[in-house]
Design brief:
This protein is of the alpha/beta class. It has 12 helices and 13 strands. The chain folds into 2 domains: 167 residues, Rossmann fold (3-Layer(aba) Sandwich); 160 residues, 2-Layer Sandwich (Dihydrodipicolinate Reductase, domain 2), CATH 3.30.360. It binds L-homoserine. L-homoserine binds next to helix 7.
């Protein structure tokens, strides 16, 4: 069998999960990828006690990994939009395919990254950037490709859903639950990204791009977080028959695409109201299929690793074939994107 070599950059919560699951399930993963996938390089500022990297070359300079001749796919798991952008561009310049879990990077620089990748016949895959372990990117890009999508609505930040669920079921204090979410590795390095809705906005624009054939852009999106919610808001909503959920909503309207992220009253009879803890769910309404619902863990080490590795398998299986046969990163070829976008917000 062919060999495909992986360089993992970043050995935090998700990096350790990817390393461990690749090792534990290598027989299944290799059979599905039709090649032997091996981690040959790790780039990390420090070791992670949750994974044993003995036998693998570990570099303290992540750029060593992007330049290494013994690496085919770079897995970017450092987060952020500055060093991560340089890292991804360095990987592409060195002829490596890229797998990333970085929603902030995709939201801010996806368009330029995909353009460079396409010009060099390289793949950039990003399943883990949205909704953790739920394969929503593949569903929107491939599974629903027959449809015109009318709207999608999602609980797409595990940290905020965990906080709201704990406030709701146990009356716990916001700050206390946020600390627990940080300890469990759900929250971003800067947790204001979670609780102010910025992380959800990043994920929403990625999904909207796939759903509506738009370039990725944060322009015009309405964003509100959960920091002003009090426990009594949650309990009053319950008395009225609603759960408060932090939703990202993208909708085709007569005037353009409406994009918004904010706390929402969801009737208890709606399946989304029963999505609790770190779970995410994305509901998609489309003309042919009707309404579909995708549910699962939205954050955490191995759930996110599951999506990262699905991308590694896709890239490992695909690389070497003709680029014309590849599924475009955002579902349709860039020339088919809507030329003019009218982003509007309306309640
Ligand atoms: N901080 C993110 C969340 C991690 O809580 O959903 C997964 O993207």
């Amino acid at each position: 069998m062919r060999s495909v070599n992986i360089g993992i950059c970043g050995l935090g919560t998700v990096g350790a999960g990817v390393f461990n699951v690749l090792g534990r399930n290598s027989d299944k993963i290799n059979a599905r990828a039709n090649c032997n996938i091996t981690v040959t390089q790790v780039g990390a500022r420090r070791d992670n006690a949750n994974c044993d990297t003995s036998g693998v070359e570990v570099s303290r300079d992540i750029f060593d990994v992007t330049r290494h001749s013994d690496v085919d796919i770079i897995v970017e798991l450092i987060g952020g939009t500055t060093v991560a952008l340089d890292l991804v561009m360095s990987a592409l310049e060195n002829g490596k395919h890229v797998v990333t879990a970085n929603k902030a990077l995709m939201a801010a620089h996806g368009t330029e990254i995909f353009a460079v990748a396409q010009s060099r016949n390289l793949i950039v895959a990003f399943e883990a950037a949205v909704a953790g372990g739920i394969p929503i990117i593949k569903a929107l890009r491939e599974g629903l490709s027959a449809n015109r999508i009318n709207w999608l609505a999602g609980i797409i930040n595990g940290t905020t859903n965990f906080i709201l669920s704990e406030m709701d079921s146990k009356g716990r204090d916001f700050v206390d639950v946020l600390e627990e979410a940080q300890q469990k590795g759900y929250a971003e390095a800067d947790p204001t990204f979670d609780v102010e809705g910025i992380d959800a906005a990043h994920k929403l624009v990625i999904m909207a791009s796939l759903a509506f054939g738009l370039p990725i852009s944060l322009e015009g999106i309405f964003t509100d977080g959960i920091t002003r919610l009090e426990p009594q808001d949650v309990s009053y909503a319950r008395q009225l028959g609603y759960a408060i959920k932090h939703l990202g909503i993208a909708r085709q309207t007569a005037g353009g695409i409406e994009l918004r992220v904010h706390p929402t009253l969801v009737p208890e009879t709606c399946l989304m109201a029963g999505v609790n803890g770190v779970s995410n769910a994305v509901m998609v309404n489309a003309d042919a299929v009707g309404t579909t619902l995708f549910y699962g863990p939205g954050a955490g080490s191995e759930p996110t690793a599951s999506s990262v590795i699905a991308d590694i398998v896709d890239v490992a299986r695909t690389m070497g074939s003709s680029p014309e046969s590849w599924v475009p990163a955002l579902g349709c070829v860039p020339s088919a994107f809507r030329a003019k976008i009218s982003w509007i917000f309306r309640i």
